[in-house]
Amino acid sequence: MKKQTLTLTIVTILLLLFAFSACRATQSSATEGTTTETSSSSNLAVLAKAPADTDVITAANTAAVTETVAETAVESTANQSASANVDMSDVAATITLNGDAIAVEGSGATATGAIVTIDTVGVYNIRGTLNNGQIVVETADEGDVVLLFNGVDITNDSSAPVYVRNADNVFITLVDGTTNSVTDGSNYVFPDAETDEPNAAIFSHDDLTINGGGALTVNGNYNHGIYGKDDVEISGGTITINAVNDGIKGRDSLVVQSGIITINAEGDGLQSNNDEEAEKGYVLIAGGTLNITAAEDAIQAETVLTVSGGNLVLTTGGGSSYSAADSAKGLKAGVDLVITGGDIVIDAADDAIHSNGTMSIDGATLQLASGDDGIHADASIQINSGTINISQSYEGIESAIIIINGGDIQLVASDDGINVAGGADSSAFNGRPGQNQFADLSNYYLQINGGYIYVDASGDGLDANGSIEMNGGVVLVNGPTANNNGPLDYDGGFSMTGGYLVAVGSAGMAQAPGTASTQNSVIYNFASVQSAGTIVHIQDASGNDMLTFAPLREYQSVVLSSPALQSGETYTVYVGGSASGTENNGLYTDGTYSGGTAVESFTISSVVTSAGVATRGFGGGRP
Predict the structure, then answer these.
(1) Which of 292, 300, 259 minimizes the C-alpha distance to 77?
(2) CA 37, chain centre distance (Å)
(3) Model pLDDT for residues 168-179, shown as the tens digit of each residue
(4) What is the pTM of this model?
C-alpha cells in the first residue's frame, strides 16, 4: 500500500480533545505532606502528528492482488446482478414441482420423474414442492442460466437438490416476497468409490450468483450448504444456511455484495480455498448483513480477505470463553487481510482477526472478544484509522511488525497488550493448533505515529521482542501488578520523538523510553505499591498539569513522556487527592486537581530522568 502521512483528520481532532490547553495555576510548595490545587491543563498540540516519511509495511505482491480482487469482484457482481434482473416475459419455461413429479411448460428443460435437467441458457421460472428430487443444470453454450426461485421447497435424500454440472454462469434469483428452501440428506449415493461430488445442498461446478429479494433456507445435512467450484457471489436475498460442515464455499472466490445472511455451520461459515492459483482463493465482503455462528472459522480466505463494508456479527468455537481445539477465528486470511470499512462484531474462541501474512485496518468499527489474540498477523499489521475495541483477549494485538498511524484503539488483554512477538506463540491454549513461530528479532518493531491507544494488560503493556518507536499519538497503559512483567518491555531500544505516553504498573521490570529519544521522559518508582484508583499527579513549578491519572489497578511505577516536559525544569509528583474535569480511561483533563500529597520533586536533567526509589527486581518495592 502507498506511503501515508497522518494529517489533521477526525482522528486528530478527537485526540486533541484529550489535550490540555495552556494554563497557569496558583503556585504551591512541593514538600512532603503538603496538598495542592492546580488546573489540569497543559499544551499537547503535537500529539497526533506523524512524520512525513512514515514507513508503510506492504506484503510482497499482495497489494496489487488485493486491489485487483476488489475491483474485479465488485464489477463482476454488479454486471451479473444486472443481467439477472428479468421479468416473466423473459421466461423460457415454467417448471412446476408437484411432489414426486415435475411438469415443464416451455423449452430448454426436460423432466424425468423427479429430476429436471436444464440444457439451454435462458430464464426458468421454478415453483412448487419437490420430494426427493433434483434440479440439474447442464448446458454447453455460453450465457446465463437464471433459475427464478418462485416459492420452491426441494429435498433430496441422497444427492444435491440443486446440481450445476456444467454452465457458463448460473443465477439463483429469489423472487420478491417468496420463501424457498433446499434440503439434502445425511448420506449421499455415488455411482462409484472415486466420485465424491456433489457434496452440498446447492452445488455448482461453475460460476454461481444468488440474488433477488426473496428468502432462501439451505439445510446441508451431508456436508456443505452451498459450494461453487468457481466463483460464488451473493448480491441479495434473505439467506439462512444450516450446514454440518461449511456454510458457503466458493473455491476460486466468494463475494458478498448485499443481502441478509444467517449461517450456522459446524465447519467454516464462509470459505474460499483455492490454494493452487495465487490470484484466486479470495473473499470480499463489500456489504450486506452477516450473522455467522461457526464451530471453526467464520470467514476464511486462502489468499486475500477484504472487508470493505457490511454489518458482520461473527461467533466461532462457542465464543471467547471457550478453548479452540481447531482453528476457530473470526476473520482469517492466508496471505493478506484488508479491512477498509464495515461494522464488525466478533466473539471468537481463537484469534478474532488473523492473517498468516500481512494485515491493514483503515476505517472500520471493530468490537472484538477473543479467547486468544484479538488481532494477529504473522508478518505485519498496519492500522491507519478506525475504531477498535478489544474487550477480551489473551494478547491484544500481535505481529512481528506493528505500525499504528491513527485510529481509536482500546484493548483488554490477560497477557500482553500490544506484542511484537518473538518465539513460539503458544498463546492461551498451551500450544494452540497452528501456533505461530517467530524467528529473527532484529527486524521486529512497534511504530506508533498517531492515534489514541488505551491498553489494559495483565502482562506487559507494550512488549517488543525488538524495538519501539513513538512519533505521535496518545498512549495510555495500565500494566501488570506482578513484577515479572512491565508496563513497557522492549529488547532493542525505544525511541520517543513525539506524542503523549503514560505507562503505569509494577516496578520490578519497569522501563522508560531509551536515551536515543528526542522527547523527554521520566520514570518514577514509588517506595510502596499504590492502591488501584489512587491518582498520580505531576505538575511543573508553576502549577501546570503534566499528568493527572487514576490507574485501573495497583501500581508502583509511572512513566510519562510529553512534549511539555522541558529540560532543566523541576516537577513534583503527588499521590492521592481528587480531580475534576473530563475523565477518559483514568486520564483527567480540563479540570482541577486537589488534596494530594507531594512525595518528591525532580529536575529533567537528561532525555530520560529516573526518580523515586530504585527497583529491587522481582517482588521488590512492596512494603
Answers:
(1) 259
(2) 43
(3) 999 999 999 999
(4) 0.87
